[in-house]
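Notebook, p. 212. Picked up where the previous page left off. The plan for this session was modest: take the two constructs that came back from the sequencing core last week, fold each one, and keep the raw output in the notebook itself so nobody has to go hunting through shared drives later. Recording the first one now, exactly as returned: residue sequence, then the structure token string.
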Amino acid sequence: MALLGAVIALFAYTRIMVKPSVAVSKDSSTVEVQNARAYLTALQTQEGQIDFTYAAEQTVHAVVHVHTKTLMGSSDNPIMEWFYGDRNSKPREANGYGSGVIISGDGYIITNNHVVENAESLDVTLNDKRTFTAKVIGRDPGSDIALIKIKADNLPYIKYGDSEQLRLGEWVLAVGNPFNLTSTVTAGIVSAKGRSLGLNEGAYSIESFIQTDAALNMGNSGGALVNTKGLLVGITSAIISPSGAYAGNSFAIPVTIVKKVVNDLKEYGQVQRALMGVNIQDLESDDAEKYNLSELKGVLVTRVLDGGSAKEAGLKANDVIVKFDGNSVNTVSELQEQVGKHRPGDKGTITYFRNGKEGTIPIVLKNQAGNTSIVTADMTENDQIFGARLEALGSEEKSSMNIDYGVKVAEVNEGKFRDLGMARGYIILSVNGKKVKTPSDIRQYTDNGKSLKSIEGIQRDGTEFNYTWGK
């Protein structure tokens, strides 16, 4: 019996332990090599066995270092000039840095608008240490995306992925140049989608950030967020931190927005932003009962603007939008992302609830001028005065502030109004001593922006402001 038991044990050991070991280690047999590869692949798909080397190798050479030079304003401090001479009053050069992502072999590079917006000159250094002078093709403060280009060919580049297919908990890699350290790769998971932080400028800004816990620091701005296949799913843009360094939350612009903005800048030099013509807000906890909803999902329409796409489509205030083009939307940022993929003139569908009943209507999206034409840079510049874009006040806004005239500041860029500290939401009541009711009044009373002697109005907190120059 003892001898029989030993034979059985030896046979079992040979079948269970020895044969797989030989099959994995030998290379002479084609069948055994294939078995070995299958065994290793199975290991990689097990929980906790994730390999980032492929994605890193596919992307690290297509992420560049962006170096900017900016002239800072001169100093008017007489004490500094007394001690140090007039050299202190001359413009000073400031250096900045960030990251960029090569998206085509002929030198087109995506970065953040805030990396390049004030730059006097741009240099781009590739991962192989070559340096090129870059030019700005176009910028969009509303999405914080900029497109730049260098003169080079046969460059490595990253292909677009699909950020809408990202799932919470999915692994992603951030590739960039933090603290001037080139070619840095960090990893994390998708923590959330559709985040809005209120960072981007302009009345038509779009924010629908991908939140991750991949480590980002100063210099990562404009870098790549890629999935484990090495495909671009976002452009790294911001962090939330009390110290200014990585603190566990980082944010990237989804590639669905990036791709649309880049194509517009490349083709037109200006973003073709499609608008629905509504004011919207996220639903609150008691809105399900208030608006007769079976579940708390969707985006509430608070106002439908005259002449806008939504008005013509038949949308009304207090409608709750739940889908755009068949894609579910539960937050303002998610709806903005879906609309932001389109250009003026594009057609879509809106699914909404009104008085507890669901409906779907077609819509033709318009531009900020209220038509479906292509917007050019000249049109945008002509729409602004003193660096700001202005809008007439609606009847509800006049009533809420107890005024019967005024013009609203919708967007502030470089110019006189920004220098005065004015911001989006300010109300201008008069310029050069004359009441204003429309943006054209301001042009008329300032000689088309050539003369501004006084301006008064209401700040966002409800307090009044008044600036006067000369007599």
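Okay, moving on. Second construct, recorded in the same format:
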Amino acid sequence: MKKATLEELATLVGGKVEGDGTLEITGMASLEEAKEGEISFLAELKSIPRLEKTRASAVVVPSSLPSFPKPLIRTPNPYLAYAKIQAFFSFQTPFPKGIDPRSHIGRDVKIGRDVSIYPFVSIGDGSQIDDRVVLYPGVYLGESVRVGEGTALYPNVVVMDRCIIGKRVIVHAGTIIGSDGFGFARDGFRYVKIPQVGIVQVDDEVEIGANCAVDRAAMGKTWIKRGVKTDNLVQIGHNVTVGEDTIIVAQVGIAGSTKIGNRVALGGQVGVVGHITIGDGVMVGGQSGVAQDVAPGQVISGTLAFPHREWLRAQAVFQKLPEMKRALAALEKKVKTLEEKIGKE
């Protein structure tokens, strides 16, 4: 069982101890479920009544919390502190399991140290598996795939030929990386498939949810940059670039050749058309449809599907609504003045 003093945990999260810093903590739990020896956290001041009932030995709280008769760690961001403390108590160095004989290893495969390759994993010719990689049952790696050190691919993950997965990446069950991009050329009433000959590159410290699809590029690469986090059921089209530390919530679909900036947040069920650019720091509300470039730092939301020509005309009017509202208010004021004048005559 892992243990740490309250002072050690405060140092871990950059917080300040109030009370007995030598108090020994053995785990973390919610305010309602925590018991003696455990630490909990309070993210918002409106939850103070819950704090008063907790049996936790200590609590992580906002810096602004009033005085409270219990050992505390004060921090400007209790939720971030919770994440770090929970990770501390949850992390266990995995014992490498080696290569299960029921797996299939192709020709000229390079395998690093302390790997865990579970039953029914298939690794294609010429692939490279670096140190401390974990491949769970049913993982399929195509030919000439590269998987960086410390990466974990959960059951039934598929990484197609020549794709590159960075270091300390987590890919959850059922996700497919490197499936063909959706590219077809029209020939009369028929469609001719455009060969998808590029790759997918996933940089370090990315986490991809379950049952996602990241399509390989038509040419070049689909690129998921460092620190990106996606929820489950996300579709990323061919030649898309997703910038660093971007977060993508469930059921988002991003069409081909779109460029997503750094630190972007796409809410659930957002749809993004192809061949546009979304700037750094943009936030898009859930179920929104993004159909044009978005400048950095914008917060946008909303969508409505109706005949395209009418939509274009409506968009032209929509941007003028604030001005029209001011004009309408001015007219209302004039009408009221005239009515009052007429009433006095």
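Notes on construct two before I forget. Helices lie at 6-13, 48-53, 78-90, 308-318, 321-344.
Flagging for discussion at group meeting.
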